[in-house]
Amino acid sequence: MARLHIHRIREDAARDDDARILVDRLWPRGVRKDHAALDHWFKGVAPSDELRKWFGHDPEKFDRFAQRYREELDEDASGEVAQLRSVLRDVDSATLLYDAKDEEHNNAVVLLGWLRDHRSGF
Q1: Which of 33, 43, 45, 121 has a CA between 20 and 30 Å from the CA of residue 76?
Q2: Residues 41-61: pLDDT tens digits?
Q3: How many other β-carbons are positioned within 10 Å of the β-carbon of residue 3?
Q4: Diameter of the chain by CA atoms?
Q5: CA atoms lying within 13 Å on the CB side of residue 59
């Protein structure tokens, strides 16, 4: 399994980043694409607009958000979860990038946990 990390997209790329993958649905306002140094952008692995708006980065809603987001990941309606897993099979390490200010209560934290729980297949 690829070693997985998460970082805010506004942080500089680390030297050991094998693959840098943006996992937000919206492009981070004010971030230049050349600064992001992305290898992939999987919008479809991000929470649905409805779920994202409901959550609103409210830490009190995080547990319910995480549960609902995991259900969306299980459904993989866009097929991008499968694409992400395919990329992870081909790299030694990957950094999942997000833009939320809260480093503990965001979609990348949930996605990282979900990927670790579903590590078979990559």
Answers
A1: 33
A2: 999 999 999 999 999 999 999
A3: 12
A4: 37
A5: 5
